[in-house]
Every structure is written in structure tokens, then in C-alpha cells.
């Protein structure tokens, strides 16, 4: 089975959406995030913006490789699994990652019941993602090349022929170049450098 080497994410935060149900207001937001610190920052900003709201419920998923996804859901005082999980369900439904969805609720005086809450949070999360620009990106791996300066021309020729992206380089007597390579092209790239015997290749960990 070939490992999937693309993922879907957001290019920028969604526009604010509003879903109303029995006088309660649900404001939905979707953000691109890469770390838990990013999540924390967005939550803090929304709590300042909506300081008089009752609940700030959210779900997020981090990681681009399917076997490395991390996710978290938070009902923030709503009944168990009535908010965070319905929001996370939309992240799964839209197949996006590195994303945070927050739904801010202003209570309108009428209880919605667990079923009503699930529908409201799911709908607000869905609307936030529908108002987002979703893009497909490739999953890349970094490869480090170490070689002597005398082999520079041979190495650069392969890089040019294969149209490879250099992430960083240090060109001295002993040279180091780090490439960013799409997962499914790694084997081809490693093979391309094999004829240059003095090049040391290393796949860097994420």
C-alpha cells in the first residue's frame, strides 16, 4: 500500500459565520494551525472578542501524515460529546488537518437538549469550513546530502534535473544541502544520487 502523500488544510482563517437556534447564537470560526500554541492563541483572542459568551467549544487536528494525527475536542461546559465531537466530525468529514474550529455560543434562554446542541455545533462547524478556502498540499520529507566540494557540479546537476527544492545549504570544503522532497519521489531521488559514490544521504526525522 502506497502511503498517501497529500493532505488538505486551510490557507487562511474562515470568515465569521453565525447560526441561530431558539435564540441561542453560535458563531463559527475555522483557523489553520500547526501547533498547540497556535490553538491557544486563537482561543485566547476569541475569548477576548466574545467575553460575554457562555461557551467556547472547539476541536482541532494536527499532523499531516495519517498515522501521526493528533486531535482534541472540548465541550467547554456543554453536556458530554454534544459540542466538541460534532465539531470534530466536520473536520473528519471535510478531511482537513492542521485545523482548529471554534464555535462560540451565546445562550438564548431556551434549552436545546443534547440532540439540538449536537445539530447546532455540527452546523456551525460545517458552515465555518464551507466559508474557508481549502487547499491540497503535498507531504514532504527532508533529505540531507553531505559531500566534498569537488562533487558540487555533479550534485547540483541532479538537483536541477529533478527540479528539487533546497531548504538550506552550507557550501564549504565539506558541503551540506538539505532538500525537501515529496514522499512518493524519495526513492527516485535517492537512486539519482547513487552514482555519485562520495555523497552521503540521510533522511531526516520530522
TrEMBL record:
Residues 22-129 form the Impact N-terminal domain. GO terms for cellular component: cytoplasm. Signal peptide: none annotated. GO terms for biological process: regulation of translational initiation. It holds the Pfam family Impact_N. Belongs to the IMPACT family. This is YigZ family protein.
Amino acid at each position: 500500500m502506497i502511503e498517501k502523500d497529500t493532505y488538505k488544510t486551510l490557507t487562511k482563517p474562515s470568515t465569521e459565520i453565525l447560526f441561530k437556534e431558539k435564540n441561542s447564537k453560535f458563531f463559527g470560526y475555522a483557523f489553520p494551525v500547526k501547533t498547540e500554541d497556535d490553538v491557544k492563541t486563537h482561543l485566547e483572542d476569541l475569548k477576548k472578542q466574545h467575553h460575554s459568551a457562555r461557551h467556547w467549544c472547539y476541536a482541532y487536528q494536527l499532523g499531516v501524515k495519517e498515522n501521526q494525527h493528533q486531535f482534541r475536542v472540548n465541550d467547554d461546559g456543554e453536556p458530554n460529546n454534544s459540542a466538541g465531537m460534532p465539531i470534530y466530525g466536520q473536520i473528519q468529514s471535510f478531511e482537513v488537518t492542521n485545523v482548529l474550529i471554534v464555535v462560540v455560543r451565546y445562550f438564548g434562554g431556551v434549552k436545546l437538549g443534547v440532540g439540538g446542541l449536537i445539530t447546532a455545533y455540527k452546523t456551525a462547524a460545517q458552515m465555518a469550513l464551507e466559508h474557508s478556502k481549502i487547499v491540497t498540499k503535498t507531504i514532504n520529507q527532508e533529505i540531507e546530502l553531505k559531500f566534498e566540494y569537488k562533487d558540487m557540479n555533479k550534485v547540483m546537476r541532479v538537483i536541477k534535473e529533478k527540479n528539487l527544492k533546497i531548504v538550506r545549504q552550507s557550501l564549504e570544503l565539506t558541503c551540506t544541502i538539505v532538500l525537501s522532497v515529496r514522499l512518493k519521489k524519495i526513492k527516485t531521488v535517492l537512486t539519482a544520487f547513487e552514482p555519485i559514490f562520495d555523497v552521503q544521504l540521510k533522511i531526516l526525522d520530522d
